[in-house]
Amino acid sequence: MSKWILGTPFFLCMLFMVIIGGCAGQSSQQKDQPLEPQIGTDAEAAAYILEGNHFFTGKRYRDAATKYEAAIKVQSTLREAHYNLGLALYRQSLYAEARPHFKEAAQLEPFNQVIRNAPPFRKYGTVETKTDDGSLDGHYGHQH
Fold first, then answer.
1. Global model pTM greater than 0.85
2. More confident site: 85 or 103
3. Confidence grade of residue 121 (pLDDT, cut at 50, 70, 90)
4. 3-state SS assignment for residue 35
5. CA atoms within 13 A on the CB side of 104
């Protein structure tokens, strides 16, 4: 009986670590997924984004990029389309082409943590956006 008692905390501790580790890995993978169109998005542009997301999920990144580009032509201020296009280009190792789209997405939605903290976006550094008062990100030059 003493072996069972001594083994139980160890077993529970290991189980807990496996569960926590699995959850952490899953959330970091989710950050590198395309965004869905928001309510109020032009219907045609939203359809292009959804088609692009379908291609992206199937690892057809070139086809996905074509759909995201079409969405941007319909509605140029779609942060989701720019971000998703950046991801699709990044997955094709077209890093220089991806960068402006990550930056544009971050400027269109400066406080969206998915956009600002995605692994491919972090590679390019922090995008600074100006607020109405002229400060960078409202932090007056300092970073958190």
1. no
2. 85
3. low
4. coil
5. 18
